[in-house]
Amino acid sequence: MIINEAYVRKRKIKGFIALTLSALAAFLGLFWLGFILFDVLRHGIQGLSLELFTEDPAPPGIPGGGLKNAFIGQLEIVFFATIIGVPIGILAGTFIAEYARGTKFAKTVSILSDIMVSVPSIVVGTFIYAILVKPIGNINIGGIIAIGFLSAIIAIIFGGIINFIVNKVLKLNTKLLNLTLSLITVLFGLFVFLTLLTKLVDKIQGFNGWAGATALAFIMIPVVLRTTEDMLSLVPWTLREAAFALGASYFKVIKDIVYRAAATGILTGVILSISRVSGETAPLLFTSFNNSYFTLNMNEPVASLTVTIFNYAMGPYEDWHIKAWAASFVIMVFILFITIIARAIIHWKYKNN
What pTM did the predictor assign? Predict the structure, then answer.
């Protein structure tokens, strides 16, 4: 076969041009990323001090003080967002990957999850604002929904504890007993819901920390769901068949075999979702708002580091600008640390395999 030299030369020129443009685009992106990181590092280190983490904010215009309220508030909101979003995301991903595998419903949920991952966070903030913050008539819908979420999480934790005690410690495992434990868990959840409804429903209204945690959890759920679905789908079906041949139920196969095989990937997705919401500002502006004072009460507006950075960066005082740079540096280091952990887990998993 005779190869046309002119044709080969033309292909090489096209390949060289494509490679050159791709390399330039990559270097351009890396340049601006490095510029941003260097700028945050240069300004942020100047504002770091022990008082930044241990003292409350000083009055406007007076130098000094710290951002203890914002650091604690940020950790509090992200913690409760993780408690709400991660279990829902893992359970939903498990249902899609295992029980609804190959159905149109599973495909539809996967497509919607991909869409939700790319939805702007400010849209999520306004949605949660309309549900949990803005009052609807004389009924505190936001308080009822928040208490329902909290009651469900408490019931799931309670059910997991009693299931562990009965099945693992006491070595009792029958279908009737498992059904009874499930019924007890549901009744306990209803009891917690009715108990908290009378005590907290009137306190959870307007801007509050629960709304902020829910907004961040709403962003975390599709990330965890898609990661869980993908990781469970990668587990070979032969492992399930081997367990079925030994007489194990589908629930035990998922819990004892599939989850163990996909644990590293699921954990990586959880860590990445936490790093995603740690730097969000727009959802918190519409939900938890902000608070100039230190508080641990999630039923009222709670300070957050991202909103504080926004306010301080827009403020007229130089001391505020310095603290905003320092807080930005802390968030950057935190997200970098989380990302390194995720990469290390992936590397460790493939190295062991």
Answer: 0.80
